[in-house]
Amino acid sequence: MIEIKGVVKTYDKRMVLNIPHLVFDDSKRYALIGVNGSGKSTLLRILAGVLKPDTGEVTHIPPNDMGYMPQAPYAFSFSVKKNVSIALGKGYEDKGQVQHALQAVGINHLQNARGNQLSGGETQRMALARMIVKRRNLLLLDEPTASADIRGISQIEKVLLDYADENNCTLILSTHSPAQALRLVDEVLFLDQGEVIAQGLAEDVLHTPKHPVIQEFLDHWKI
Amino acid sequence: MDGIIKALSLLFGENPELRQIIGVTLRMSVISTTISSGLGIPLGVLIGSKEFKGKHWVQRFTNTLMGLPPVVGGLAVFLLLSRSGPLGTLKLLYSVTAMVIAQVVLITPIMTGLTATIISIPAPRIRETAQGVGISAWRQMWLMIYECRSQLISTILVGFGRAIAEVGAVQIVGGNVQYKTRVMTTAIMMQTNMGQFHFAIALGIVLLTISFGINALVHFLESRGRT
Ligand SMILES: Nc1ncnc2c1ncn2[C@@H]1O[C@H](COP(=O)(O)OP(=O)(O)OP(=O)(O)O)[C@@H](O)[C@H]1O
Ligand SMILES: [Mg+2]
User: Fold this and answer.
1) Which of A201, B13, B101, B216 places its Cα 20 to 30 Å from the Cα of A41?
2) CATH number for the domain harbouring residue B49
3) What is the ipTM of this complex?
């Protein structure tokens, strides 16, 4: 379980995240939805521990073996293979996991290419391979399919679902696609100006929105 | 014209003093660049990669030292090493060691400042990505250095370029002693004052060639670093 208590983050006196209390259950899948600047990345960063909130705390009980993929993952100038194997960590030997991960995200043919020469979508897949290269019980993914083509999107979604099932992994991802949330997750958290304005089963939040902001947001979701 | 021809014959002939001067210059420049890199690069990596209280002030301080006029740096080292100075008992004044110390004082801040700027650009993204898969802070630093390697090598070359071209400070603390602390720049200055233009021109050609070579290398590395 992950528990957030009294977390506030401000930049230059502007409050960008304000979460009095929030709990994520183990082995469940969550989507963060909200317009640009609503605080999705900030929340993921704080959950991952790469950003310190001004006040409040995040507790992982028990401590998680966590993987966090930023919105713009860094691609190192060494080979794609090495880019993924650095995520194995100390004491882990590559016994084919890297190959397997690259295969799963569909960039096995690029394993010897230089990481920093990949396309945007390929870079995102490589970053995803870093996430799934070993067993983890928490994945925090910032818009994991943002630069994927439509075929890539369903490929990646399948990879994520399989991985989460196999490893009993808690999944928290941000997305701009309500449809993706419905396909992937149990619960949706809707963020607006740094606050969670709705939380609940994906169908409930997205099919019968109660909050006017969410209704307005979903008005734009026609196709 | 006559001077240039004489200079060329000097260069391609056997002139022990010319060789000796070039030797001292290179020795001084290589040693001081090595020490400055050893101090400045790790410090720059720390400043550039970490967020800490007072970082702003550390950067200001470094920038101020980066712009330290060489003669002022030279004067400070002179006072430090002079007979009545705090390190006077070491009797280092007018030695190559003194010149190296002065050079280190001048070049280390430059290495630190440039390194910090170079590292600070990819640092946040590298940190976030690496931390996200549990890579230790120590290893993150190495990854940053690796990713900036060509620019950092350029920085070392810039430092070497500064060392080899410096006049004021080495004149003050080295004293331009023949066969001991005379380097290319101080020799050029003296020979020019004495009207011995061919000797000055010969050294000028060597200096220019080295500078040109370093610049070419820096450009090559930087163009490669961009791809
Ligand atoms: N380092 C920073 N300095 C100042 N403001 C920041 C910084 N990082 C984020 N912000 C601000 O915090 C707010 C929330 O940003 P965040 O990245 O969490 O949004 P987001 O919901 O992920 O948006 P997007 O959908 O565009 O990715 C934004 O208004 C942004 O301008
Ligand atoms: Mg974001």
Assistant:
1) A201
2) 1.10.3720.10
3) 0.93
